[in-house]
Amino acid sequence: MALTAAGPAAAAKVKLDPGEWGHPAGADCVSCHEKASPGIARQWHESAHAAAGVNCMDCHQADAADVDAIEHEGQVIATIVSPKDCGRCHGQEYREQEGSVHAEAYAIIEARVPALAHQLTGPEMQAAGCDQCHGSQVRVRGDGTLDPATWPNSGIGRINPDGSKGSCSSCHGRHAFSKAQAREPDACVRCHSGPDSPDKEVFEASKHGMLYAAQRDAMNLGADTWVAGKDYTAAPTCVTCHMGAAGKVPATHDVGLRNAWSLNTPISERQYLVVLDDGAKLELPADAKPPKRGTELAKADGSTAKVKVVATPERRRLVMSTVCLECHSKTMIQGFMNQFDDVVELYNRKFGAPAAAIMAGLYDAGKLTPLPFDEPVEFSYWELWHDEGARARHGAAMASPNHAWWDGMYLVGRNFYSQFLPQARAAAGAQAAALVDVHIDDAADHAWRAETQQGNPILGWIPPAPELAPSVPNAPGTDAAAATSSPGESIAEEGGE
Amino acid sequence: MIRLEPPVFITRHVLFALVAGGVGGVVFMFFLLEFDRYTSSNAFCTTCHSMTYADTAYRQSAHYNSASGVRATCGDCHVSEGIIMATYDHAVGTKDLVKQLFGADYDDPAVNLLHLPKAAFNAREWFRRRDSATCKRCHTLEAIQGTRANTAAIHQEETAGKTCIDCHMNLVHRKVPSEQTFKREAWNTMVEEELGLAPGTAARLLAGEAMPEPRTEPAPATQLAEEPVAGSSGN
């Protein structure tokens, strides 16, 4: 797989013969649905699909033997149009998204769902919450209906009745399937927003987002091809950096392909992208040598496949940086990436890794029950990496200072020192030194805590200045006067800046 | 005074036979009418326990509970109009009685549910062959207004070559897929899960074996209770 290969940078053209679509029954669907559900009929009428002669039946037709096939007004159809169905025409996009971090979104959290959704709240929340972004495992009941606990759903990692993973309509709104809509940052907002993944907020608060908002009219969003630097230059969107064509970088529907780091993990890792011979992909930590071509590797579902290609994190970073080149110089990109990497490494070193080690120690020593979320420190730890830590890292990745700092690393620090550590020590009891403090006491990052006499006007008080003038040996009252006056002065100075 | 002179072949015996036959015929017609009326009633149909399953779903449907108080009985939908066809339908229907007496144990909820799809397919075919005649006893295509904007237009413009049952399946009884897309395996699994049966029990029950082992606890909320409106015209 040539990540930066030269080639057609535009969206892939459908190569199928037009004789493959234009199902004869489609006109009947449209005629009735113009009356029964005029909204979707109108959307379709105005779509590129309609213009090309692709009708309802071309996407919704099913084989009677399909698990989710139903008879509808004399036609055998399926409600769900899976990526595999879309892939009949849009083969390249289907193959790219297959195995991407998007397509695996359900698999990634499947093991976490019971603890959070079922126990902490209730199973109802899985359908209304988790699954709406991560996708549901759609269940077809014996009477042919789709289980309402799993449908409707357009989560991006949906496990479809035909076995395919993903949901194109997660980003491409039915039934208009507008290019412009999918290129908007708002195409991502349903899931990439909120406390744990505030990417919409991060983007909007960044210079990129500011420029986009101001110059949206110049974005050429509806253009046939949409190559950054060629078809538009006003600002980048989510798509631009993560999927879009730019210069010689081809567009891709593997949205995680250009990500060098894992940012939504307790400890970030630089990661290999391993492409397997069956089309599946794996992300492996890049702390070991890359797996050799032809090696047999186990996938998340337990099956194995052979390694076809490995992209190193450096390679992935290079692709992302190549997109930046359309507007920025090499040195600026390099500098920005250094700042980003530094934040991730700081988070890992100072908070992520020690917190993970402390939690592991508490579990190993039986100080915490294995059951998640039955002890306060488990919430603190979870939010440390999953919410605050993720915000800090995403803020740094996409240049939103407020998310990197106030909504991010500041809260990480506050949680770590004022919540996580005290709770961990309380859980460890007499063994606090051996189970908790051992992980931070000798670390240079945490040494500042020992300098308890170091003052700073940030909280409105600094310790009295040491006696300076031995020439005035007996002047009682001088020290006290200095001490009382200095805080006021400090505040005034701060306020004046 | 006029004196009637009957033809010579009208003998006293013939006259007697005519009168007796006439009276007998009228009595028989009344009997048939009453017989068809009674055997079309809900009370008669649910005499058999096996029919109470269909009844449960029916009682949740709009054909039982309508705002206007119009209530369709079993016979209104499942028995043709007119004494000849009604009698014919009842005559054919005696096969159900025979099956009830000598066939599978349809009174058992599992056996009943396992056979429901076949009954639904037969019922739909019955409606289709008659061009949904019993629907049209009450519903007039030209008069359908509906409550949504375009219901009338859909019924005027989109129904060529179609009969009511083609679109309006699963109105009254428990939902059954169309015959074309029906999956026996999936249906059996659903029945087993719903009634707390061991996997494989459904296939054995269908093959005519008696209930193999004592049942485990049925699932607390059965599908029937959850989804009573969905259903098909099983007879």
Describe the model.
The complex is a heterodimer of chains A (about 500) and B (about 240). With about 500 residues, chain A is of the alpha+beta class. Chain A has 19 helices and 8 strands. A 4-stranded antiparallel sheet of chain A has the order 6-5-8-7. Chain A has a two-stranded antiparallel sheet with strand order 1-2. In chain A, α8 packs antiparallel against α9, α15 packs parallel to α17 and α16 packs antiparallel against α17. Chain A is globular. The N terminus and C terminus of chain A are likely disordered. Chain B is an all-alpha fold and about 240 residues long. Classes of the chains: A alpha+beta (about 500), B mainly alpha (about 240). At the A-B interface, α1 of A face α7 and α9 of B.
Instruction: Tell me, briefly, the overall form of chain B.
Output: extended
Structural class of chain A: alpha+beta
Secondary structure: helix percent of chain A:
40-55%
Percent strand of chain B: under 5%
- Overall mean pLDDT score of chain B? 88
Alpha-beta classification of chain B: mainly alpha
Q: Helix share of residues of chain B? A: 40-55%
Q: Could you say how many structural domains of chain A there are in total?
A: 4
Give the quaternary arrangement of the chains.
heterodimer
Number of helices of chain A: 19
Q: Order of strands across the biggest sheet of chain A?
A: 6-5-8-7
Report the end-to-end length of chain B measured between terminal Cα atoms.
Answer: 62 Å
The overall strand count of chain A is 8
